[in-house]
Write a structure and sequence with these properties.
The chain is α/β, with parallel strands linked by helices. It has 11 helices and 12 strands. Helix 1 packs across helix 7 and helix 2 runs parallel beside helix 4. It is globular, with a radius of gyration of 19 Å. It binds nicotinamide-adenine-dinucleotide (NAD). Nicotinamide-adenine-dinucleotide (NAD) binds next to helix 1, helix 4, strand 5 and strand 7.
Amino acid sequence: MRILVTGGAGFIGSEFVRRLLEADPRAAITVLDKITYSGVRENLAPVAGLPGYAFVHGDICDARTVNDVMSGHDAVVHFAAETHVDRSISGAAPFVRTNVVGTQVLLDAAVRHRVSKFVQVSTDEVYGSIDDGSWTEESPLAPNSPYAASKAGSDLLALAYHRTHGLDVSVTRCSNNYGHHQFPEKLIPLFITNLIDGRQVPLYGDGGNVRDWLHVSDHCRGIELVLHGGRAGEVYHIGGGTEITNKELTGLLLEATGHGWQMVRQVPDRKGHDRRYSLDFSRIRQELGYRPRISFVEGLADTVAWYVDNRAWWQPLKARAALS
Ligand code: NAD
């Protein structure tokens, strides 16, 4: 099986590619990535010399490139996206372009080339916010940010291509990922790298927003299960099982880096900030045998250690994006 991985130079996509090629160094994988501000080609350095691996520098919105690249592939795992909610609030256009139009371009090419599986990687944010209980795969979509709305649009397009064209599509929706190689604008790596440098961290509002945290390697294992065993036209939740508030998370990061609460700067809340996300992931557990393996305590400690050891990876990215 030859797999096309879009967005494979990003945080989750690169973990997915490294993982597949570590398990089977002869696996056939093509990465298609535009290398936007969050794409890092060096994330794929460990696999760059392997015989089945190929990298194409290109845009998923470019129909000609996508059509050329799609030829000869049996499956698509689609990660490429604009991903940062704050950026979607200050400018939604790239989110609609890449997340909606880019997904449509890929789906058209997948139909044309008779691809046998298309995995659309998505997010719990498409459901909006939930005070109590957890969303099932049948919960209504009610996205609140332009990012989440663009992901909901791309999920609906992918499912429509299944119903209209018979393309074998599965959609995965996961909770907040964390781990090594995450671009340092996202909460966990931003806070860790600021604290390593003795700088304050910005906590939104009262810090009471609740997120479920999922280690990136557990997420990628879930995607692999869906790639090989997911039913066509179905949505699968991939959860981590660790719900905590941003304030509690901040406390853990302060403790891990040896700092106190004087390092926290409270900033006005994000516009339309969802209060709580929570996924019921019993479907993937029952059908495909998924369960998260990495405890949050262990995963967070490893993540902090990785950023301490890999300043050369994150410092230039932070400087280029002027993050503080
Ligand atoms: P990321 O921002 O780290 O990586 C995105 C990658 O996509 C980058 O390599 C970038 O260069 C590439 N890309 C962007 N626009 C492109 C385009 N037009 N053409 C080709 N490549 C393009 O993102 P991530 O955190 O790895 O997220 C990957 C996927 O997982 C996204 O679809 C995202 O919505 C989803 N997701 C992420 C999380 C999370 O917590 N990070 C949670 C739920 C879902």
